[in-house]
Amino acid sequence: MSASSQDILVHTDAAVMTITLNRVEKKNSITSAMYAAMADALDAAHADAAVRVVVIQGHESIFSAGNDIGDFLNGPPATHESPVFRFLRGISTFPKPLVAAVCGPAVGIGTTLLLHCDLVYAGDNAAFSMPFVNLGLCPEAASSFLAPQLMGYARAAEALLLGEPFMAESALEMGLINRIVPPLEANALAQRQAQKLAAKPLSSLVETKRLMKKGQAGMVAERMAEEGVSFGRMLKEPAAREAFGAFMQKRKPDFSGV
Length: 258
Fold this sequence. Notes:
The structure is a single chain. The protein is of the alpha/beta class. The chain contains 10 helices and 10 strands. It has helices spanning about 30-45, 70-75, 85-95, 110, 145-150, 155-160, 170-175, 185-200, 200-235, 240-250, and strands at about 1-5, 10-15, 15-20, 55, 100, 105, 120-125, 125-130, 165, 180. The strands form 2 sheets. It has a 7-stranded mixed β-sheet with strand order 1-2-3-4-5-7-10, with helices on both faces. A 3-stranded mixed β-sheet has the order 6-8-9. Helix 1 links the parallel strand 3 and strand 4 (about 55).
């Protein structure tokens, strides 16, 4: 079965649901409506016993430039039921295997969502960044907890405090991704790996993932909630307003991406 909207495509085939970011002309910058569509897709995949694996992918030239700044400022997340928070809860608690294919820039949430995926395959053109500090904000998606745990404190501090991009080779060394391939091969590789997973007993996949993540599940939820409070407060402060204003002025007439 297939379901699609303009900016998010959702397709299910042979027990694998694929969520495709499909707003390439805006660098796959994510709007509130796109977060809602992805949250709905994860909810549907969770509930559907026929779906064993979910793949998240973008285009061979761009994974995601992060939040759409114009959309974000026009409708900032106000409650825990806002689409972005629904998506973050959905991806962080999703019980089945999550596979991602990443090519080109993966900015902000484009990088932090990968911390919740089980397998990540990257094109050799992938560039990861978490520039929250540069926008007067703090990390999200529990990345203030997961990034130091994965990368070690020193590398996480460099990535989160400086907000500078790091390339696929560094991401592989850190353990953020599993393999580097040419960009045209990344989505296909993710699909092949997803099919391998889908051929295995679902109960075994779910229980193995639960056991591996058991020690961090509570901390992830707690840190994500704390980050959300801080993020919302900082979004209203002068540093963020000044940074967003400068960013939008620089990017006119295209306000996409962070």
